[in-house]
Design brief:
331 residues, alpha/beta, Rossmann fold, 11 helices, 14 strands, 36% helix, globular
Length: 331
Amino acid sequence: MVMVQTTSTLPATKAAPAAVAIEVRELTKVFGSFRAVDGVSFTVRRGEIFGFLGPNGAGKSTTIRMLCGLIKPTAGQGMVAGWDIVHQTEEVKQHIGYMSQRFSLYEDLTALENLTFFGGIYGLSPERLASRAQETLQQVGLWERRQQITGTLSLGLRQRLALASALLHEPPILFLDEPTSGVDPISRRNFWDMIYGLAAQGVTILVTTHYMEEAEFCDQLVLIYQGRIIAQGAPRDLKKTMPDTILAVYPDRLGDSLDLLKQQPQFSEVAVFGDGLHLNARSPETAIADVRSLLTAHGIAVRAIERMQPTLEDAFIFLIERASNNNREKG
């Protein structure tokens, strides 16, 4: 494979403050013969919560690592906080906060000692570090636990401490890579309350997630699949991409009903949602009668069939399926 060299026509000096916090053009990363990120382009405005949504292995984390200056792109251009991600990686790192899936904390240190360590990396003066450590620990509700060994904190509290370490130097842009993976729902909601508060203060936030309810919290979303962006827009706009009506079907024998309905060509997608099924139907009136008739003929009672508005998960499944079909057609 011929490797494309990274070039950049973006200015190599600090840009003037602008409404744009992150700008990416045709960003690409190739590992050997594997194209992990393939020509990704998007813009994030200041103070926006910008979500990266996609299945595991789609290229979300690789994209974030390029934007944070942790790995070099194979091709393409990017500006983060006015700095070039190819030529000014050290400046990029000083102007962002990064919170990875593993939180990057030292579990044998106290909460305060962790912040002291990260403050040294960021080059904060002793006076500034002492002030910011107290401010951030109070902000995330951990000041009273500042002397507790990090490894003894619950997962939700370690998540808060990781956020505090990312905020210590007051970065204008915050990158969160699957920040709530494995965290309980209450901690996840509390975390997002803090994220909303940061965005209200003008902090730009780019977050990767596979939780649909979290994606709904974002101002803008990018859906990435096999390294490419297949859709982007506000959550409400992505839902409008659905060409079909969604039917919610509540049968007595869920598994048998799923198998039967998946065999019917008039339904483009059938999936389990809670104690029922969601299916996509071009003609809902005909589909309702067809579903009831089919299941009844196989001795399956149907408690209810309802027409409903598409969820973000419905749109996600539809867009992934459409992209998969397009890839198969291209051969």
